[in-house]
Design a protein that fits this description.
Blueprint (H helix, E strand, L loop, with lengths): L1 H16 L1 H6 L5 H39 L16 H11 L10 H16 L19 H8 L1 H13 L3 H32 L4 H6 L17 E2 L2 E2 L1 H4 L1 H17 L11 H4 L9 H26 L11 H20 L7 H29 L4 H23 L11 H5 L1
Helix pairs in contact: 3-4, 3-13, 3-14, 4-13, 5-7, 5-13, 7-8, 8-11, 8-15, 11-13, 11-15, 11-16, 13-14, 15-16
């Protein structure tokens, strides 16, 4: 088995490396060979990072859920708290049979997991893990991440429709509508950070939150600096509200609890990937954890200073710690909050996140023009942030207006 797997990997790599020679023969330009090899190495490194991240995230989520439920979680596989359990599960999935249901559209059924995973993987191209650690430094980096997420919607719809299963198509329709709906508030709540930085470039947004000690040429928000990180939420209170609402919208984008209606086991079995098995099934969960890191990394760069912070910590490590902390909060919420109903899902999107998105954009722009770095702005910012957070909590707790023939939860309990 291992020799066959090694032969498959070797032949795949050899085929990829020989593509320029097939096109140009023996007269291949050196610059083309360099670009080609760089792309292959970048893809291999990216795939390896996502795989390791997914293995670690699955193990961490099992341990987090176990501790919250007074259990031990994985303990047997591996010498330290079952840290090899997810590696054993990965080997098990590789050895499972790849089943294609009768009556399904085979081409779309086989292509859908690749589309979903590809849509998640190509978002990593513009994520700056450090000041000099990024694959591409695009001027439209934020827009690029929002655009590439549309490929995930195509894969989810293809997976549901091609499975020839009513639960799969229902789950695919739910997931697609949720993705498309929450794309709007997600983009709106990213705009205040873009306004404050004056750029869509991810690296420039992170650098605009930096304050370098002892360097008078970097006066940007130095009055609010914590070591070498200018904390935006205390500079502009609308940034705090935008970050919180962006995080809520990103939970819906990644189909995480309490927004996991597309995979509700009691209604739709496993959503759009009900009929998948083996390695193709694992692609969906690789994409889920890859998406979790993407939205966490995006929030880290736009609102948490990126790799800026304590000067004694390496920039890459600081960036990863911030992003992994946001992933931990997602795991924590999964075992804390109940699943929303469909009407509550749409209510949160269109009547909470969307209106507050326009308010935060307008407020951030006015704040940057008139109140930033003034004593009046400090006092007004603290008061305004408290008022906005209180209003958000009140709206979140309020129930949607019942339709004809329906009762609210309070009336039903009475």
């Amino acid at each position: 088995m291992y020799s066959a797997l090694y032969q498959l990997l070797y032949s795949t790599l050899e085929t990829l490396l020989n593509i320029p020679f097939w096109l140009f023969g023996s007269h291949v330009p050196h610059w083309l060979v360099f670009i080609h090899v760089s792309l292959i190495l970048g893809g291999v490194c990216m795939m390896g990072f996502i795989t390791v991240l997914a293995l670690f995230s699955v193990w961490a989520e099992r341990k987090v859920s176990a501790y919250m439920q007074a259990r031990l979680g994985p303990m047997e596989v591996g010498k330290y708290h079952g840290w090899l359990q997810t590696a054993a599960d990965a080997i098990k999935l590789l050895l499972k049979e790849d089943i294609v249901p009768a009556g399904s559209d085979k081409f779309l059924f086989l292509a859908a997991p690749v589309l979903v995973f590809s849509g998640s993987m190509i978002s990593y191209v513009v994520i700056p893990f450090g000041p000099h650690l990024k694959i591409a430094d695009l001027d439209l980096g934020v827009f690029y991440i929002l655009a590439t997420s549309a490929l995930v919607v195509v894969g989810v719809i293809a997976a549901g429709w091609s499975s020839y299963n009513k639960w799969s198509i229902y789950g695919g329709m739910r997931a697609a509508s949720q993705y498309i709906s929450y794309e709007i508030p997600t983009a709106l709540h990213l705009l205040p950070a873009v306004l404050m930085a004056g750029s869509l470039n991810m690296s420039q947004i992170a650098d605009s939150q930096a304050y370098y000690l002892g360097d008078p040429s970097q006066p940007f928000y130095k009055d609010f600096s914590i070591l070498n990180w200018a904390v935006w939420p205390w500079i502009n209170p609308f940034a705090t509200v935008s970050f919180i609402l962006y995080f809520i919208a990103s939970l819906a984008e990644t189909q995480r609890t309490p927004f996991d209606l597309a995979e509700s086991e009691s209604e739709l079995v496993a959503g759009s990937h009900t009929e998948y098995s083996g390695i193709r099934w694992s692609f969906f969960f690789l994409a889920e954890y890859a998406d979790m890191f993407v939205v966490s990394a995006l929030g880290t760069v736009l609102f948490l200073g990126g790799w800026h912070g304590l000067p004694l910590i390496p920039p890459v490590l600081e960036f990863l710690l911030k992003a992994l902390f946001l992933m931990f909060v997602m795991m924590w919420l999964r075992w804390t909050l109940p699943r929303l109903r469909v009407d509550q899902l749409t209510y949160v999107c269109w009547k909470v996140l969307l209106p507050f998105g326009f308010v935060t954009i307008l407020g951030s722009g006015l704040w940057q023009l008139y109140l930033v770095r003034t004593p009046a702005g400090w006092v007004a910012g603290t008061v305004l942030m408290a008022v906005l957070l209180l209003a958000m909590s009140r709206i979140w707790k309020s129930e949607p207006v019942p339709r004809d023939g329906e009762m609210t939860a309070a009336a039903a309990s009475a």
